[in-house]
From TrEMBL, chain A:
GO molecular function: oxidoreductase activity
Protein name (database record): Unannotated protein
Domain Fumarate reductase/succinate dehydrogenase flavoprotein-like C-terminal: 487-596
Entry keyword Flavoprotein: yes
Secretion signal span: none
Statement: the UniProt record of this protein carries the keyword Aminoacyl-tRNA synthetase: no
Annotated keywords: FAD, Flavoprotein, Oxidoreductase
InterPro entries listed in its UniProt record: FAD-dep_OxRdtase_2_FAD-bd, FAD/NAD-bd_sf, Fum_R/Succ_DH_flav-like_C_sf, Fum_Rdtase/Succ_DH_flav-like_C, SdhA/FrdA/AprA, Succ_DH/fumarate_Rdtase_cat_sf
One Pfam family cited in the UniProt record for this chain: FAD_binding_2
UniProt cofactor(s): FAD
Domain FAD-dependent oxidoreductase 2 FAD-binding: 10-430
TrEMBL record, chain B:
InterPro entries linked: 2Fe-2S_ferredoxin-like_sf, 2Fe-2S_ferredoxin-type, 2Fe2S_fd_BS, 4Fe4S_Fe-S-bd, Beta-grasp_dom_sf, Helical_ferredxn, SDH/FRD_Iron-Sulfur, Succ_DH/fum_Rdtase_Fe-S
Protein name: Unannotated protein
CDD domains membership: fer2 (cd00207)
Alphabetical list of NCBIfam families matching this protein: dhsB (TIGR00384), PRK12386.1 (NF009052)
Biological process, per Gene Ontology: respiratory electron transport chain; tricarboxylic acid cycle
Amino acid sequence: MTAIERHSFDVVVIGAGGAGLRAAVEARAAGLRTAIICKSLFGKAHTVMAEGGIAAAMGNVNSKDNWQVHFRDTMRGGKFLNNFRMAELHAKEAPDRVWELETWGALFDRTKEGKISQRNFGGHEYPRLAHVGDRTGLELIRTMQQAIVSLQQKDAAEFGDAEARIKVFAETTITEIIKDGDRAAGAFGYVRETGNLILFEAPAIVIAAGGIGKSFKVTSNSWEGTGDGHALALKAGSKLVDMEFVQFHPTGMVWPPSVRGILVTESVRGDGGVLRNSEGRRFMFDYIPEVFKEKYAQSEEEGDRWYADPDNNRRPPELLPRDEVARAINSEVKAGRGSPHGGVFLDVSTRLAPDVIKKKLPSMWHQFKELADVDITTQAMEVGPTCHYVMGGILVDPDTGAAAGVPGLFAAGESAGGMHGSNRLGGNSLSDLLVFGRRAGAGAVAYFQSLGGNVPKVTDASITTASDHALAPLRNPGGENPYTIQADLQQVTNDLVGIIRTKSELEESLGKLKGFRARLANITCPGGSAFNSGWHLALDLENMLLVSDCIAHAALIREESRGGHTREDFPKMSAEWRKVNLVAHVENGEVVVEKQALPEMREELLNLFDVEELAKYMTSEELTRHSKGANA
Amino acid sequence: MTRTAKFRVWRGDANDGALKDYNIEVNEGEVVLDVIHRLQATQTPDLAVRWNCKAGKCGSCSAEINGRPRLMCMTRMNTFTDEETITVTPLRAFPVIRDLVTDVSFNYKKALEVPAFSGPANLKPGEYRMEQIDVERSQEFRKCIECFLCQDTCHVIRDHEENKEAFAGPRFFIRLAELDMHPLDTLDRKRAAQEKHGLGMCNITKCCTEVCPEHIRITDNAIIPMKERVVDVKYDPARWLGSKIRRREGL
Ligand SMILES: Cc1cc2nc3c(=O)[nH]c(=O)nc-3n(C[C@H](O)[C@H](O)[C@H](O)COP(=O)(O)OP(=O)(O)OC[C@H]3O[C@@H](n4cnc5c(N)ncnc54)[C@H](O)[C@@H]3O)c2cc1C
Ligand code: SF4
Ligand code: SF4
Ligand code: FES
């Protein structure tokens, strides 16, 4: 057997995106010895790609904004299926998390008064997204990276060793959470560069491993989005919630084929970009759903006026929540009114001057110029839906990030579920990463401190099992090629579990997904274990498959359409279904999805909404109870 | 419009390696990284390559294409003629790990040597006030995606391992400049740039600026102003203090 490198830490954080880094800062700040593990180089996590901004009700641009308004917008965006407590904590704490970034050196764009500037985004009532041009994620990741470096500099000064209390293990992939009884005891994986196996013994483990986009064919996600965090938690005995809700961002590039899926930031629409079909019609006016009718402009003229005078006009329907816009584009293309390459037109050149476009949307300008030969200051972009974000994730305790069912396991960021309900608003992820990254870090610290000497142990048997499992693709004689399986899997999810779903297709997908298990067991990876990309993919595939299975199962059970889950055979939203979360776990190797009651919003939070609005989402029985509560 | 292209890719590890020839299919609109991926999927599954976003945003996929340091995901195939052989080799300034993957830990070591942002003690979170025009200069440098192409191309370290100890390289000159121009940073960056980070070894060839995929004007906007200021600072401490307290326009 290959020698196994062993390390011991107080807290291990899996993931170096915004959530993982914020968790690590919290653990290290409490004086605990903390490891950060990531698949890529330090500073390259998927968070780097975020563009538009980070949502926080600082009220810098419109002083009417506050946490209550942000909370309301978030619940509406998620169609009231959000875990209310998470949405509440998020809205309350986001401003502090943004301001804290400034003290670590972040340089956001400014208002005239020298405060952090905030921009409009879909579903947010007021300008709310702090931003740096259209590269906000880069600023966030670099700032957090530099915050970690500054802690290391302090340790270097104090202990003569920069890595005394916080160490980054880059290009290292975790394949398994190891337990002692029902408690987390360690994380096992391999070092990509050498292929060496590695064990981290730690009683507290934070999963912040990002999303699942790579399970789909057309996606805006980087290669890391293979659902590892989701799968690690499931395999360790924890649970996933809301997995049927997958966000398809309405505007991904559609041409050339090699860049299909790459994101076109929502800021293009926030800053004035309009959507048109092949007939030149601003079709979004035809797709304003009943629940949003009063909140959006009914004519192009009113929509146009809103940019200059938001107090007296309603916003244009291009800024509806993402699920609405994505479905609308999908319908236009299906109806034969799409653009030449199967998308629709997004045009910002008609409303903004070329130099303003280059200044406000520099990366978009570059992206289209360099990858598609399109000059967005004079030409329209072609865009279509792309798999962007998973609302579902590890079921956690809102306040501490503790993962359901496994003491010592915590989760935050895109790997965790609940916060966004059935649909996430733009900008609410970056703030989620920081708010709940910090909370999960603090949760891990409190748990560690509560243990006293009673620390779980990693047994030799569990190490052998984990290493046999990891090395299997290098030893198998089977002959299946991991790249081919990946392409086939992505095709199945795309065709059968995609943006519009039906019972028969979902059932078909479950059958097909089952068929992949045998193929996975037969993968062969030629070459050694040192930086062997085929082997890496083979191990990622297992996670992609498990996650796809959860999505398909949950999607089949939920017989309604809501947010990031659209059933052609159940096109309406159902108040009965709103009371239900679908929760997945693994039993004897099979995914089992069960219904669980959605936590009920506290009365004082319910009172933030008009009863007429609640009536659109809730059952009459719930409403009666609420009006009684309000009178009491 | 599928065609077959001739690729020559460096294969090997720290001990040994050689260029290997491949004929491989190319479709309309593709970039070099697409073709490398197709090589992995169809001909050589264990080909080692770093990438992440495939959108020019993370700086992972740096390599040398026909000898020029570039991002593979932002190099379009239509910039080459159909007959041309496209040679892809790992970054030369850093030790090879395997195939196109190099050991870039040098850069992380240098990052650790630059003292972090140090804000004013009297301002609480949320109280920072800065003008857009003042943050813009530093923002240009914060566009850096850490692809390390500038480090790779800089002749001071490209073929001179011995200089690496004393020389931080252009990536970290812009980091120092960024902090120096940060309206609220309180540390002395200029003197350190010269004395600790080897700014003096740069002789302004501008090669770094030429390869930067983010079009950061490394030499004109960071290195040259830093060098000028270093001269100021070194000979006139009073003026240095002045520049920290009230930043002068145009410097
Ligand atoms: C193009 C694009 C633009 C976006 N723009 C915005 C925006 O403007 N505003 C907004 O709020 N949101 C935006 N989002 C969403 C947001 O960027 C993501 O949801 C968020 O960055 C996820 O962060 P994270 O910390 O959860 O994980 P990630 O940043 O995805 O990081 C995951 C980390 O986990 C590591 N990891 C994964 N698996 C393993 C494993 N097995 N072992 C070890 N390490 C592992 C990875 O290496 C990585 O370091 C955007 C997303 C995309 C794709
Ligand atoms: S200008 Fe200076 S830093 Fe840039 S490549 Fe030339 S010598 Fe190196
Ligand atoms: S300055 Fe430019 S070339 Fe250098 S690392 Fe940053 S982005 Fe790359
Ligand atoms: S893969 Fe991210 S820059 Fe090329």
